[in-house]
Design a protein that fits this description.
The complex is a heterodimer.
Chain A lengths: L24 E10 L2 E11 L4 E6 L5 H8 L7 E6 L2 E2 L5 H8 L2 E4 L11 H11 L5 H14 L15 H13 L5 E5 L7 H18 L2 E6 L2 H7 L2 E6 L2 E6 L1 H6 L3 H8 L8
Parallel strand pairs in A: 3-8, 3-9, 6-7, 7-8
Antiparallel strand pairs in A: 1-2, 1-4, 4-5, 9-10
Helix pairs in contact in A: 3-4, 3-5, 4-5
Chain B lengths: L1 H35 L4 H11 L4 H23 L8 H39 L2 H7 L4 H39 L4 H11 L2 H27 L4 H34 L6
Chain lengths: 269, 265
């Protein structure tokens, strides 16, 4: 794994955040095979509390698979995942419930419940947590819609929302219970630059206002540079680079250069 | 050659037993959840409306025309040997023990089973089930338990309705169209139809309801590959439910006949 320029050499050693006692998320030697294809081949990663980490990489490179592992939606073939000091591997689906309460996830397609209105979608996690007071639920929904800048959209059905609006509602639903960490799966894919920028602002605001740890999976470099404190480049199933956005921009590594400049011939020229 | 034969036979057999295992695990998980976790009453009542209330028309039409045509056919045969007034008994016992539960179950499998598997399958392929899991909601509790309980409550009621409508339709056809003596018709029917015939029909209804709900939910939960996968899951749910109903009906008949023997005793 590469940590910084000017001499980026790939390594498979786990990244350790200096001076940090208990990271929010820690991944150790994570491996996953789907069918015959090795998607993850020993991923090591740590996410410090309160930081935003962008995981970048080529399409189909296993970024979303890695993200789904972090919340226990997929089971790895090998490796460990630690969330706030607890190893979640081997936990049953019901035991994972307690871990998932600490983590919100925004799915690539937002995954809104299509039989519910926007308000019902956002209130869903609160209802499931036992909140029944309609006044409290209404207030919380309004507050969340205010955070994602979608005031007055309570009664709309998901099918009548645009892609950007769906993602915002999905985000509102995932943060309504104030998780300590939010995972974003391609938050800006398929959105125009203006809407993408508003989503990026939202991610930054959540980090600043609520102190949430964020992991953003993206191949949108502008988004990664906009929101991230650190960037990890996933390449051939491993973390190939870990560093700050500045360090990434200054790197001379040909593989990273090809990705940053969008070159498809792989020559590094 | 022999190895090839057994390996060709083995793969589908293994797949079949794996499929049965998945249904059994889902059923076990659901029953565990029913007894250990709180029921979502709103979802349960919604499903009772969907399965029970909205299936009324289909079940009433099925029961009425089955009773009517069965009464007519029985009369045509029995009248030749002077036993036309026994039509009521034959219609009543047959509808209670076989036709009512089987035909109602087949109609419900087509109407409700397909809807269940399509709805859950669509949720699966659009990541809504992953969203449920990510929001710390166990999918079996939220999706399967309310449907299973609603089916267990609704199916016996639907079958009871089908039986009642079928017998009534048979009576009207026999009395007003075939001109059988109403007194003899009723006397024979009441004499030969026992409580155990009704209990057998309702027991079958419960079992068929359980089959439909677990086969359909399992198909929905294992749907893959977008719209095509959901379509395939829906078709398979209806076909497999219908086959399971017909096959299990035979074994249930043999088993329940030991507990509730047929005939006047």
């Amino acid at each position: 794994m590469i940590e910084a320029p000017p001499s980026p050499k790939p390594s498979t050693k786990p990244h350790l955040v200096p001076g940090n006692s208990s990271p929010m998320v820690a991944v150790r030697s994570l491996a996953k095979k789907i069918g015959e294809q090795e998607i993850l081949r020993g991923v090591d990663l740590e996410v410090t509390r309160g930081e935003t980490l962008a995981i970048i990489g080529r399409s189909g490179g296993g970024k979303s698979v890695l993200l789904k592992h972090l919340v226990g939606l997929m089971e790895p073939d090998a490796g460990e995942i630690w969330i706030e000091g607890q190893n979640i591997i081997g936990l049953t689906e019901r035991q994972l419930g307690a871990v998932r309460e600490k983590i919100g996830i925004l799915f690539q397609g937002a995954a809104l419940f299509d039989s519910m209105t926007v308000a019902e979608n956002i209130a869903f996690p609160l209802r499931e947590a036992g909140e029944r007071n309609p006044k409290v639920l209404r207030e919380k929904v309004r507050e969340m819609l205010d955070v994602v800048e979608l005031e007055g959209q309570e009664e709309k059905m998901p099918e009548s929302l645009s892609g950007g609006m769906k993602k915002r509602v999905g985000l509102a639903r995932s943060i309504v219970r104030r998780p300590s960490c939010v995972l974003y799966d391609e938050p800006t894919s398929g959105l125009d630059p203006v809407v993408s920028d508003s989503i990026n602002r939202l991610i930054r605001r959540l980090q600043k206002r609520l102190g949430m740890t964020s992991v953003v999976v993206t191949h949108d470099m502008k988004s990664a540079f906009d929101v991230a404190n650190h960037v990890a480049y996933l390449h051939e199933g491993r973390i190939y680079f870990y560093g700050t956005p500045n360090q990434l921009q200054q790197t001379s590594d040909p593989i990273l250069q090809d990705f940053l400049l969008g070159r498809s011939d792989g020559t590094g020229d | 050659m022999i190895v090839r034969f057994f390996s060709a036979l083995g793969a589908p057999l293994l797949a079949f037993f794996q499929y049965l295992g998945e249904i059994m695990l889902l059923a076990a998980d659901t029953f565990r959840s029913i007894f250990t976790h709180k029921l979502r009453w709103k979802l349960f009542l919604n499903q009772v409306v969907e399965i029970g209330l909205l299936s009324q028309l289909v079940v009433v039409i099925t029961g009425a025309f089955t009773g009517a045509v069965f009464a007519a056919q029985t009369f045509f045969q029995f009248n030749k040997i002077g036993m036309g007034s026994a039509t009521g008994a034959v219609v009543s016992v047959s509808i209670c023990r076989e036709l009512g539960p089987v035909l109602t179950a087949l109609m419900v499998a087509g109407r409700v089973g397909a809807a269940m598997s399509a709805e859950i399958g669509t949720m699966k392929v659009t990541e809504q089930i992953d969203a449920l899991r990510a929001l710390a909601v166990y999918p079996t509790d939220y999706l399967v338990v309310p449907r299973a309980l609603a089916m267990m409550v609704s199916m016996p009621l639907l079958v009871a309705e089908c039986i009642a409508v079928g017998i009534a339709a048979g009576y009207f056809v026999a009395i007003f169209m075939l001109e059988i003596n109403g007194t003899y018709y009723m006397a024979n029917m009441v004499r030969w139809t026992r409580n155990r015939d009704i209990i057998m029909g309702l027991s079958k209804a419960f079992c068929f309801g359980v089959l439909i709900v677990f086969i359909s939910c399992q198909k929905g939960l294992s749907a893959r590959e977008g719209a095509v996968g959901v379509g395939r899951a829906t078709t398979e749910a209806v076909v497999n439910s219908s086959l399971a109903i017909l096959i299990c009906n035979f074994f249930l008949t043999m088993l329940l006949n030991i507990i509730y023997p047929a005939g006047y005793q």
